[in-house]
Design goal:
alpha+beta; Immunoglobulin-like; 2 domains; five-stranded mixed sheet; four-stranded antiparallel sheet; 9 strands
Length: about 575
């Protein structure tokens, strides 16, 4: 069985488990049924368990005692709420003392005491609202989850193990520890299976899946190869101008399609053109991969970190376009200038004996193979993009637009006999990537529950001293440097709750810190070969064709450009605060 088939089966198994959380866990969890006392007083106690950031704590254990005797034992819901209802003998509450104990692993156990006569009453019903704040502690659950998370991160960053397998091992190990050692000693309980399922952002998963299907159908039409031919025809043999056209096309395509997919489709075509021009393909491929990462930054769907940020922060497609498209366009202009300075001489040395003859050859080789399917595909893609642009108005998740577009297009393609469904499912949907995201969300959910992200947020806030300028600068540069050397996807997932907290406590931050994270994570991916998936894919294809570039060779050109774009982005954010 192929890797993609195994990943597809795992995806289905995980997905089938998710509804369990949807059926149980959204409301406060009560304890076992209490005895009914005829004519007795009914006590109603409710509240929220919060951490030191005033964020709700799910699955905290709450015990209610009356005069030292436990009368209820329950746990909080996903929103930190608990509701306790029990009965006492009539009149007993006035002389009683009520104690509420709250506890969760990685938090300090806290109790409050309230005299019974302080409860509000109406008839035989008594009411009490009691919120409790728990203080974080660095207990066994914190250290275990942190170590497992870092080990998984190292395996992913240095490609010691396939990133999907590394994330799956880390996620399953945390759950195993929680249900074995954590059952014997609650201090070792990291989080529950229900919490793990709730941490998976299905909006991100379904958006990626929908776009993979749409692109998988479109690539059967030859449209991307035809665009490369069109660029060459417009350039009329001028290689630098050809490079400019391809840079612009790549940047725009990456804004609306996954940048990895864009490079997969363009790399082979670019290599063929460069070989015919006696030009080293890397002189064209490196600018293109840099353009794909910059262009993908401009929209919500262009790069996986943006998808994650938009889904987590509730930002719309147009929010990203308004805030980031202009600065990305400026960075593309800088890329064109840098391309001329760095590779201008190489381009000038490329020659074609007969431009018209070569143009005709490309026209024959790179043509639209299925205009009917392309018409359907472009129509569906235009409709999906319309929904992306307006999804904020409809209060609709972007994944709905992607899935609808994918459903319509794949139905048309199958009914007309244009594609094979099983081939599309197995070859064009990147199941290992989808599974990687699922296990990554679980990993991040675990360390968030254990307190690691809270600790990092406190450190950044302390370092910035509450200053917007320092916070914004710190986030964009830390994100950029980290994303240059490790995969920007797990780093972004780690930073989401941190930036969310900082955005609420730093005066005047608004959404700007989100844009700082997006620019840093996406632009930072240009720093090294391993900084972004598009880099790895493009250089890998080039090497398979015999065109090798070292880690340092790529970094020599790409890293200075990354620093320039991050600097431009930083200045942009501080000046305009989008």
């Amino acid at each position: 069985m192929s890797t993609k088939k195994i990943a597809a089966l795992l995806f289905i198994l995980v997905f089938l488990c998710i509804p369990d959380y949807g059926l149980a866990g959204h409301g406060p969890k009560s304890g076992p049924p209490k005895p009914v006392i005829p004519g007795g007083d009914t006590i109603n106690i409710s509240g929220i368990i919060l951490d030191n950031h005033k964020e709700p704590i799910s699955e905290a254990e709450v015990r209610v005692l009356v005069n030292g005797k436990e009368v209820d034992h329950l746990s909080t819901a996903h929103n930190g709420k608990y509701i306790s209802r029990f009965q006492l003998q009539k009149g007993q509450i006035k002389e009683a003392t009520i104690e509420i104990h709250a506890y969760k692993a990685s938090f300090k156990s806290t109790a409050i005491s309230i005299p019974g006569q302080e409860l509000a009453s109406k008839g035989n019903n008594y009411y009490l609202s009691a919120d409790i704040m728990l203080e974080r502690v660095l207990g066994p659950a914190f250290w275990i989850s942190t170590v497992v998370f870092i080990l998984a991160y190292v395996l992913i960053a240095f490609e010691l193990l396939h990133r999907t397998i590394a994330a799956m091992i880390g996620a399953s190990l945390m759950l195993l520890i929680s249900y074995t050692i954590g059952t014997l000693n609650p201090e070792y309980h990291i989080f529950s299976f229900e919490a793990a399922m709730a941490s998976i952002d299905m909006n991100v998963i379904f958006l990626l899946m929908g776009m993979m299907i749409i692109v998988g159908v479109l690539k059967n039409t030859g449209v991307f190869q035809w665009c490369a031919y069109l660029a060459y025809r417009l350039a009329k043999g001028n290689v630098f101008l050809l490079s400019v056209y391809l840079i612009i096309f790549t940047a725009v395509s990456s804004a609306f399609l996954d940048n990895v997919t864009t490079m997969l489709l363009l790399t082979g075509v670019a290599i063929e053109i460069c070989v015919s021009l006696s030009l080293n393909p890397l002189t064209v491929l490196i600018p293109l991969v840099l353009a794909s990462n910059v262009g993908g930054t401009a929209t919500l769907i262009g790069d996986p970190p943006n998808i994650m940020i938009g889904s987590y922060a509730g930002l719309t497609f147009m929010d990203f376009v308004i805030a980031l498209a202009a600065v990305c366009a400026v960075c593309v202009v800088f890329l064109i200038i840098m391309t001329k300075l760095v590779w201008g001489k190489a381009y000038a040395s490329a020659r074609v004996e007969n431009i018209e003859e070569y143009t005709q050859k490309l026209k024959e080789e790179y043509k639209i193979t299925d205009p009917t399917l392309l018409s359907y595909g472009l129509g569906v893609l235009a409709f999906a993009i319309f929904l992306f642009l307006t999804h904020g108005y409809w209060h609709m998740e972007v994944s709905v637009a992607a899935l609808m577009g994918a459903s319509v297009l794949v139905t048309i393609a199958i009914v007309t006999g244009k594609i094979n469904l099983m081939h599309l499912i197995e070859k064009d949907i990147e199941w290992p990537t989808l599974m990687f995201f699922i296990f990554l969300f679980i990993l991040v959910g675990a360390v968030e529950s254990a307190g690691l992200l809270s600790l990092i947020a406190d450190w950044i806030q302390h370092l910035s001293q509450g200053s917007f300028l320092i916070s914004c600068t710190l986030i964009i540069w830390v994100a950029a440097i980290m994303s240059a050397f490790v995969d920007n996807i797990p780093f972004t997932a780690t930073m989401l709750p941190i930036v969310a907290y900082l955005s609420t406590v730093i005066p005047g931050a608004g959404n700007t810190l989100w844009w700082a994270l997006a620019l840093g994570a996406c632009f930072g991916g240009n720093g090294t070969i391993i900084g972004a998936s598009a880099n790895v894919v493009t250089i890998g294809i080039a090497e398979s064709r015999g065109y090798h570039i070292t880690f340092g060779g790529f970094m020599k050109t790409a890293f200075p450009y990354m620093i320039l774009t991050v600097l431009v982005g930083n200045i942009w954010l501080l000046l305009f605060r989008p």
